[in-house]
């Protein structure tokens, strides 16, 4: 099931962990890299590699929202469903997404461009309403920004609204 390149990487991962089962998350991530999601076949293969039961692997795979158990669209939209984000507009954001793309959480657009999921926390409470698209954060969203974002993603595959990767503040600035 895994490619020959992935099998080489699996060997390297397993060497890093004195207890084989500790390699579970890295191998699940590798499976997702390979297929775009974590399939039942890959979970069974990982279980064999780590001497675990398939249900144990499934338990871990279903716990983490970063792991997808079915194919997703080119753009994975994640909206926080925690109380703080709900208080500042995540429900409104979900309505805008439904209005613009015609999908609800757990659904993918007909063209397989967009998949929408809700997650527990994206650690950006102060910038909500916000969403994560693949690995980029889009913050302080308005209906207009959401429309622009989807238009940009459809036409160019990227959007200038992204705030980029999080950077820890310079420790000198905290004094």
Brief account:
This protein has 175 residues and is an alpha+beta fold.
Low-confidence stretches: none
Question: What spatial form do the alpha-carbon principal axes imply?
Answer: elongated
Annotated CATH homologous superfamily of the largest domain: Glutaredoxin
Number of helices, counting only DSSP H or I runs of 4 residues or more: 7
Whole-number radius of gyration? 19 Å
Q: How many separate structural domains? A: 2
- What is the distance, rounded to the nearest whole angstrom, between the alpha carbons of the first and last residues? 53 Å
How would you describe the overall organization of this protein?
The longest helix is centred in the first third of the chain and has 13 residues, at 4-16. It is elongated, with a radius of gyration of 19 Å. It is an alpha+beta fold and 175 residues long. It folds into two domains: 4-63, NADH-quinone oxidoreductase subunit E (Arc Repressor Mutant, subunit A), CATH 1.10.10.1590; 75-155, Glutaredoxin (3-Layer(aba) Sandwich), CATH 3.40.30. The chain has seven helices and four strands; from the N terminus they run ααααβααβββα. The chain has helices at 4-16, 24-35, 40-50, 54-63, 83-87, 90-101, 143-155; strands at 75-80, 114-119, 131-133, 136-138. 22% of the residues are buried. α1 (4-16) packs antiparallel against α2 (24-35), α2 (24-35) packs antiparallel against α3 (40-50) and α3 packs across α4 (54-63). A four-stranded mixed β-sheet has the order 2-1-3-4, covered by helices on one side.
């Amino acid at each position: 099931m895994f490619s020959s390149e992935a099998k080489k990487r699996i060997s390297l991962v397993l060497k890093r962990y004195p207890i084989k089962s500790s390699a579970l998350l890295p191998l699940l991530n590798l499976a997702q890299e390979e297929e775009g999601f974590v399939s039942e076949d890959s979970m069974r293969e990982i279980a064999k590699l780590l001497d675990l039961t398939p249900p144990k692997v499934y338990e871990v795979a279903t716990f983490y929202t970063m792991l997808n158990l079915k194919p997703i669209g080119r753009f994975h939209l994640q909206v926080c469903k925690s109380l703080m984000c709900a208080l500042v507009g995540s429900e409104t954001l979900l309505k805008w997404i439904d209005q613009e793309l015609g999908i609800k959480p757990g659904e993918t657009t007909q063209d397989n461009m967009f998949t929408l999921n809700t997650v527990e926390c994206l650690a950006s409470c102060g910038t909500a309403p916000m969403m994560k698209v693949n690995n980029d954060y889009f913050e302080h969203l308005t209906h207009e920004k959401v429309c622009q974002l989807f238009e940009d993603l459809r036409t160019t595959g990227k959007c200038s609204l992204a705030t980029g990767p999080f950077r820890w503040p310079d420790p000198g600035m905290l004094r």
